[in-house]
Amino acid sequence: MLDIIMGRYKVSRLMQEAGLRSKQPGRRHRYQAAQTESMARPNRLARQFTVAVPNQVWCSDITYLRVENRWVYLAVVMDLYARRVIGWSLSEQADTDLVLRALDMAYAQRGGPKGVLFHSDQGSQYGSLKLRQRLGQYGMTQSMSRRGNCWDNAPMERVFRSLKTEWVPKNGYVSVHHAIKEVSYYLITYYNTQRPHHYNQGLTPVQTEKKLDQLSGNT
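Predicted structure:
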């Protein structure tokens, strides 16, 4: 095979002459600048990622996915005990409502627990007044990663890495409806009930929680 060395400008000109277009996004993703002040909370979790029981610590974060020719945003809430996804939301807007929908889903799915530590990064969505009020309504304590320390929320980073490397098409989804259907299946069905987790010694998150119930005599 012959190696040909050329610059990107020549490649661009040759592609234009041949009528070829790149499938890669034309611009890098950038979150919109926050319009309101974000109030940080102490890092109460402090990377203590091993917890004793469900509904003790929930983690949350936002990522972005390519859909057609635009970005959409995914917020996820995960119970840290068995790394089980318990809430999620997809939207074209990376706003506080995106996070609130994921939090509300998690709260309903778990039966309204009290005393949960809710951990996230310092994104403006998590520092908003609306979210802080909702956490207070639910009887939750807020914790935030230190600025610029993504490993303070490492379990959430792993969820998104698994989603994007194992499931999301290389060129993104063809529609929002398709993205919602596929992301929902991956997070709630595949990730929670079928995918073995190294952290859970090869069990799924659902199996790990059921095992705890059996040991505590709740079944």
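Summary: Confidence is low (pLDDT under 50) at residues 23-27, 33-37.
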